[in-house]
Amino acid sequence: MIYLDNHATTPCDPKVVEAMLPYFSETFGNPSSTIHAEGRKVADAIKAARSQVGALINARPKEIIYTSGATESNNIALQGLVFQADGKRKKIVTTRIEHKSILNQCKALERQGFDIEFIPVNRSGVIILNDAEELIDEETLIVTVQSTSNEIGTIQPIKALAQITHSKGAYIHTDAAQAVGKIPVDVQDWDVDLLSISAHKLYGPKGVGALFTKGGPYSMPISPLVYGGEQEYGLRSGTLNVPGIIGMGKACDLCVNEMEQEGNRLARIRDNFERDLLDRTDVQINGSLNNRLPNNSSLTFPGLDAEALVINMPELAISTGSACTSGALEPSHVLQAIGMSREEANSTLRIGLGRFNTQEEITEASKIFIQTVKKLRRL
Ligand code: PMP
Fold first, then answer.
1. Is this model's pTM higher than 0.85 or not?
2. 255 in active site
3. Whose CA is nearest to atom 12 of ligand 1?
4. Beta-strand (E) ranges in 106-163?
5. 90-129, pLDDT tens digit by residue?
6. CATH number, span 2-8+259-378
7. Which of 73, 101, 202, 319 has most ligand 1 atoms within 8 Å of its beta carbon, as the pocket-test mutant?
């Protein structure tokens, strides 16, 4: 099996697993039990992981809140701010190409009386800043736009959006689940207020993530969604997922050292792969060609059913859309939002390369693709 679905999830790096293992049965104390040495040992490890996560995005350790993943981080960001809003700002600005953990929240918040506005995106999926400038106003509470797309890989101009947002006195959140560990993310340079991270997208374990809160959670009017023992500055109660957090810390540390080289390597083999397909089949590449994730390739095969293509390539693990939406009958909301017809969207595959893919594997994958596309076209 050649695994090409690294946007859905990545395998844990063996170095991450190695770092996690002692925290299951050997060093298993509760980091809140700092009265004894066992608890303190774990608390120290949790602290070190906070620095490792922070270092990857240029945040201070106290600005990192541990969560169960980007879905939860996205929920705390939006609803946490909404709970403390004074009722004067009733507008939330986002895009139609966000992950469902943003879009479905927005639907729920709309039912509570919030006005949801969408910044238009161009055919590459890049937000149109002039339109953003018109939409974001003194009524806006929060602007939330993903840093990079989990389907078409497009990188958004978050820094410019943050400037517009702050000039109107609103908060800016970015879902960076697919960006952190793949491209340089600098919360200070971007000047974002809130940013979501997921460990399992960067070779860490599933079920753990983080929310960056500028200045730390006490600096922001943000309420918890879960009440309890006041862990994580009271913003996210519940006993910490210690092995998961240690794994996320290690995964972030590996990315600090490997991201640039890895990104260059993946972009090179991704480009070779796309060139092979372009030379030998009828295929169209989606997203912004000069501003996309180095590991992403979103491909449309006109006239072919993407699902049939996947089923006919059992040696490859590929997805037709985001893992959360593939399996649904509706074609991808992201592809439709960038102006594709339902037919085009249904002819589109998402390929996500990752740390453990080799050039040999991708050469093999492109052969399988070309053969299968030709076979299906003959049919
Ligand atoms: N946002 C984006 C852009 C994602 O790709 C994902 C994962 N599919 C999520 C949020 C959700 O992350 P998690 O699985 O950690 O909840």
1. yes
2. no
3. 70
4. 115-118, 140-144
5. 999 999 999 999 999 999 999 999 999 999 999 999 999 9
6. 3.90.1150.10
7. 101
Segment 275-293, tens digit of pLDDT: 999 999 999 999 999 899 9
- Identify the band that residue 85 occupies on the pLDDT scale cut at 50, 70 and 90: confident
- Residues 315-335: b if buried by 16+ CB within 10 A, e if exposed: ebebbbbbeebbeeeebbbbb
Q: Could you give the CA distance from residue 163 to residue 160 in angstroms, rounded to a whole number?
A: 5
Fold of 14-253: Aspartate Aminotransferase; domain 2 (3.40.640)
**Domain ranges within the chain, ordered by starting residue:** 2-8+259-378, 14-253
Question: What does the mean pLDDT of the chain come to?
Answer: 96
Measured between alpha carbons, how far is 254 from 277 in angstroms, rounded to an integer?
Answer: 32
d(CA 340, CA 348) in angstroms, rounded, equals: 10
In this model, does residue 321 exceed pLDDT 90?
A: no
Mutate-to-test residue for ligand 1 from 201, 248, 296, highest number of ligand atoms within 8 A of CB: 201
